[in-house]
Design goal:
By secondary structure, the protein is of the alpha/beta class. The protein contains ten helices and eight strands. Strands 7-6-5-4-3-2-1-8 form an eight-stranded parallel beta sheet. The protein is globular. The chain starts with a helix and ends in an 8-residue tail after the last helix. Bound molecules: pyridoxal-5'-phosphate. Pyridoxal-5'-phosphate binds next to strand 8 and helix 10. Pyridoxal-5'-phosphate (PLP) binds next to strand 8 and helix 10.
């Protein structure tokens, strides 16, 4: 199968209203251009340098999503062009994004990452930590970050019930936060969950964004999780 065929096959399975982020990390620009030639425009990367290189060389109408763990000292490289930062997992990071975005009077779309997996390796905030951020005076002064929803990663497992349970937790937290902090805010509406092996479950459980890499571009040869 080719990239464009695999991409179109996956797109045919994507529910209405759900956006597909084609995760192109570690893959060459030719592969991205093949996906682009089908009309796809939303791509995701998880390394800042790699993303900046690709942004510079590839068509400017690509909507780039940053899906990796982001270090504060690298925020400034993304701010000029990134469409959405999926994995914001600390007050410090929000603060730096706000500060960098303020310099050029931009507003950066962010998702707060919630830890839903049981694995220790996954980054993310607890619901309590998110609420502490949202009620803080500091956060209320941030004018250059826009929180448009949540992101989470389920345990890497073949246990579908475990994955489903974790996605349900994210959906529940999203609704509680929506009701308590974003009721009047129509922009808080995204739930980014689901990857190649679990996106069908994620859509059943309320995902609005799915992040799919290997099912489109093939397995990654070297490890770059
Ligand atoms: C790599 C990655 C994906 C895509 O993973 P696949 O299993 O290749 O679909 C999705 N989300 C994040 C955060 C990733 O790092």
């Amino acid at each position: 199968m080719s990239i464009s065929k695999d991409l179109l096959k996956i797109k045919s399975q994507i529910s209405e209203g759900v956006k597909l982020v084609a995760v192109s990390k570690t893959k060459p620009n030719e592969s991205i251009l093949e996906a682009y030639s089908t009309g796809h425009r939303i791509f995701g990367e998880n390394k800042v340098q790699e993303l900046v290189d690709k942004f510079e060389k590839l068509p400017k109408d690509i909507e780039w999503h940053y899906i990796g763990h982001l270090q504060t000292n690298k925020v400034k490289y993304l701010v000029p062009f990134v469409h959405l930062i999926h994995g914001v997992d600390s007050m410090k990071l929000l603060e730096v994004i706000n500060k960098e975005a303020k310099k050029t009077e931009q507003e950066i779309n962010c998702l707060l990452q919630i830890k839903i997996a049981q694995e220790d390796s996954k980054f993310g905030l607890s619901q309590t930590e998110v609420e502490a951020i949202l009620v803080s005076d500091k956060f209320k002064q941030f004018e250059n970050v826009k929180i448009i929803g949540l992101m989470g990663m389920a345990t890497y497992s073949s246990d579908e019930e475990l994955i489903r349970k974790e996605f349900r937790v994210l959906y529940t937290i999203f609704n509680q936060l929506k009701n308590n902090y974003f009721k009047e805010n129509s922009e808080f509406k995204e739930i980014s969950m689901g990857m190649s092996h679990d996106y069908l479950i994620a859509m059943e459980e309320g995902a609005t964004l799915v992040r799919i890499g290997s099912s489109i571009f093939g397995e990654r040869i070297y490890s770059n999780k």
